[in-house]
Amino acid sequence: MFTGIIESLGTIRRIETQGEGKILVIACDLDLTGTGIGDSIAVNGACLTAVSLGKGQFKVDMAPETVSRTTFDSLGPGARVNIERALKLSDRIDGHLVSGHIDGTGVVSKIETRSNAIIYDIQVPENLACEMIEKGSVAIDGISLTINQCWENGFSVSIIPHTAKITTIGFKNVGDRVNIETDMLGKYVKKFLSGQGKGAKSANDAGADADLDISMSFLARNGFL
């Protein structure tokens, strides 16, 4: 689990291809003395497992599923990446809860400077856009951000100069792809309200055929609305 608060910018030193998977060697300036082999590290928002650690660098394996859902299929040696180590239970959550499981990719469609902010419009598939709400949370390349506006195939975020300086978002141009993780709570709500939660049996109805139908009327009857 992560927070979306980027700790360091890393650089991909080497990429090895293993069939449809990849092995990445990443250099960073983080103190990794407290990190062990098998620990989770988010790279551009993707939760990856450290399989080797060295001075100023680490190595991660990337499964074919991760490659297919992220922008790593187009990154090469020298590419800058956002780095965040896994959340400790004693830490403050300054961003939002980020799982590190990328839902898909988006494309920067517009960049506009407005006073001291940089506004990024991001185009995404409709199945991702429908999981977003205005003033909700989203992770772009692992960066925890607040959604300004959203529409059927995209959304916008406002970036302050500090965020642009210390993360990869400041390097992005129109047409660049980014990793997207939508808010995990929204995914569960969407599944229940869409009826995909049907089929679960009540623990008190062992052997009964009645399904639990989670709907707006059900939530209202039980005091949730």
Task: Write up this protein.
This protein is mostly beta strands. The chain has 3 domains: 8-85, Elongation Factor Tu (Ef-tu), domain 3, CATH 2.40.30; 104-186, Beta Barrel (Elongation Factor Tu (Ef-tu), domain 3), CATH 2.40.30.20; 195-225, no CATH class. The chain has 5 helices and 12 strands. The chain has helices at 64-69, 126-129, 161-166, 184-193, 216-221, and strands spanning 8-18, 21-27, 40-43, 46-54, 57-62, 80-85, 104-114, 117-123, 137-140, 143-151, 154-159, 177-182. The strands form 2 sheets. It has a 6-stranded antiparallel barrel with strand order 1-2-5-4-3-6. The chain has a 6-stranded antiparallel beta barrel with strand order 7-8-11-10-9-12. The radius of gyration is 20 Å and the shape is globular. The model is unreliable at 200-210 (pLDDT under 50). Its EC number is 2.5.1.9. Catalyzes the dismutation of two molecules of 6,7-dimethyl-8-ribityllumazine, resulting in the formation of riboflavin and 5-amino-6-(D-ribitylamino)uracil. It comes from Desulfobacter postgatei 2ac9. Pfam families: Lum_binding.
